[in-house]
Amino acid sequence: MTSWLRRYCNLILHRLLLAVLACVAIQTSHSDENICSLPGVLSCNECLSRGPQCAWCFQQGFLDGLPRAQRCNTLLNLQKKGCAVEFVEQAAVTLKVNATPPGSQVAPRDVTVQLRPGAEVSVTVEVKQLELYPVDMYYLVDVSASMQANLASLETVGTALFHRMRDHSSDFRVGFGSFVDKPVSPYINVHPSKVQQPCSDFKLQCRPTHGFMHMLAMTDNTTEFTRITHQQNISGNMDTPEGGFDAMLQAAVCQRDIGWRPEAKHLLLVMTDQPSHLALDSKLAGIVVPHDGNCHLDSSGYTRSTDMEYPTIGQLAEKLLENSIHSIFAVEHGQYRWYEDLTPFLPGAYVGKLQAKASNLKDLVLEAYKKLLSDVEVEVGVQDQHAHKFWVNVTAVCPRGSKPSGLHKCSGVQPNQTVFFNITIGMKDYPPAPEDVLIFIRPVGFNESSMVRVQPTCRCSCGGQPGCQDELEGPECSEGSSDAGCRLDGTGPMCSGRGECVCGRCVCEASRLGTIYGKHCELDDFSCPYWQGQICGGRGDCVSASCHCDSSWTGESCQCPTSTEPCLSPDGQLCSGRGRCVCGRCECDDPWSSGRFCETCPTCDSSCQSHWKCVDCHLSKGLLEGNAEDCNRTCSPVVDYVHAFPDLMSKAVKHCLYPSSESCHYRFQMDSVPGIPQIHISRYPECLASQRYYPTFICVFLLTVLLGLVLLLMVKFLLMRSIPSVGDVPVYGNTAKESNFMPTATQKTIIYRRGEPAEMPTEVQKIPLHEVWHSGSKA
Fold this sequence. Notes:
CATH superfamily of the largest domain: von Willebrand factor, type A domain
Shape: flat
Distance between the termini: 196 Å
Helix content: 10-25%
């Protein structure tokens, strides 16, 4: 009886368990079906984006008369409803692991994945910490006045640390740099006496304040390191925080200047006794330009210290991670808590308390080095423009003896142990342009990383089958189909950045501004400049926002003819030989030239004058001596003689005059046979025609003489009126007998004649005009 009851109870429990499992399966099936066949699923692509369990049936006649959403369901349900497997489209996932170089710390180094929206893939990354690895350590020392005691002992402590680290590294090198703060107010005293001697109040010799100064690149020469540290002097500033973040970022990104080796561990040792300024603090000095994250270092130090903000914590963390740098903060007790709160935001950071005179520096660095090596952590980054299209989960599988510290990290890992990281990547939606998306898996502090290249697979093939009418017609889309056909010239953006690549062909997006079209969505009817009311002037196509003009036109809006014919002057020259043809119009080279064809030039010889020398040769030798051939050899035009010219008023022929020595004018005309300019000279000078110019010349000459005479008379009259009269006393000039006597400005010569002529020079003072003259004696 007891055994029968036991068997009966077991049977009941077994059936109950089966029922529960069936209920769970049914519930799961209904849940999957509900997710995949929700109303509104109108295409294969929408169906597959619902989730990896969803599939689309494109079989002819499947569920005729029912909504198209019924074509989307799980594979099992579609088969139950009569859809053959060969007509089912599913979100296939492919993964390809490329070869990893031997001796790598991170494997695999390169992975290629093909995904569709809703699908996910898992990748396992192995990270192995090697022993006796090459190490580069850069001393970044705060040299403000309060660090004087630590700086003085750094020479001996640093040398001891140098030798201790060689026991833990196969190749150890050190570098050195110093920092204080931005050398601007209010961080320093900007009085002229304080800029060069910031410690004058303390009667100390100080260096000028500096943001960051690089002193020694990576070296294994202990003597050189000792010499550099021995030469260091303190500096000073006014406020408590220092510019440590400025210096750290420069030490991280200036790889070539610092001498970081790609194959080595990178340790950045920051020694300070104060916190660092943060990004917004720089606005106190009026500095508002955000830090660009680049290297700005020359022989004088950090060159952008006074005009670029302090970096943000996130920016500093990004640069430390990109350059595989571990940060070790050796700080005094008073600031330990501040840096302890900071280190969680900086990957691969360690903080330790620095004792007086840096006496424990070597032990602090060795402890930090061992701790950093025993912590194995990864950071995952997706290209910024595509980050919202993907999700990533990381789970660390720690080796024996270590322990997990969150999902991304293992602590207490010993050398040569391997940590496994399971990386699951899922795609939520297609990227705007279906190009490869890079996902980087970076172990913190390692100079190696793993890169996952995600290739969004082409959309549903369907092959023009029912239920796929909204899909692109044409060849079926296989997994190996290329997107090269969607790129202009094979290298441009996918579908010119204005469409989606579907099975190797572009589907252009709609725009409210106009129509986008073309094989690569490169054409439109709205983004190019207009000319005379038409896009591209109606003489070209709008390709990628610029006009591609027809062969006869050029310019931004195809407004310029390519032909130079509109710029040819009547004599056949391009812009009269004084300019260039630009957009169908002449642009004169000489600013004094003007006119439609630059034909007007007051400072230039006329085209007639340019041929006077040749005409003169023919008139002197051709007509008189009969040696016209000599002139034709020296003149570029061909010259001949004519008895008469056509109508002189004709505009088709240009007539020129040559003034001869007989005051007559020879008339000659210019014309041109293609390639052979010609000059025709009249055999007889037109003297009568030239004499008509003489009356005008005579009139002008007579008028000039008459005006000159009038001016002379007026001047004489004015001069006579200006000469004063001196009473009734006659004034005589000196005679020829006394030609050597010349009176001065205040002397006159008076001649008295009584009987025999006698001359006696007498000196008489001139009397001003306003005084009345009186004789020298009284009555």
